[in-house]
Amino acid sequence: MDAKIRKSKFTSLHRLLHWSVALGMIILLITGFLKKTWMGRRALAAAMKAQGVKVDDAVMKKIAHTFDGKTNTRPKGIIYIVTGAGGQDLYNPEQTDQPDTWQKFTDKFLAKKHSLSAVDVNGQTFNLKQIDIDGKVIDTFTITK
What we know:
Layout: H1 12-36, H2 41-50, E1 58-61, E2 66-67, E3 79-82, E4 108-109, E5 115-122, E6 125-132, E7 137-144
Parallel strand pairs: 1-3
Antiparallel strand pairs: 2-4, 5-6, 6-7
């Protein structure tokens, strides 16, 4: 029998791609695990509670590009704040100038520019600033419990 040395079919590039995908999958799994544990809502709530924030009163949801906070600045019970305007494509920018098409709870609908929410909680005071992609503050409100 001839002893033939088998030549590998895979180049260094193939091996690099293979291990890059494998490493990427591990990172995704670890990130998912961390988000479900110490980076999750319960861990955030515990950290806020440790700082003296009444966690049951500060519930935030980020779903759409609408938010309300001007109508009742000393509410009782749970406060829901819906905010957003970044990460994906903006939708319905024409609605920005058509308040008659907004949901009844909508105070502002700003869908022409991406933006982010900057939140500061100090004791019983909750401050939110909505900042557009150019760094301009486009909305702000304070809620005091």
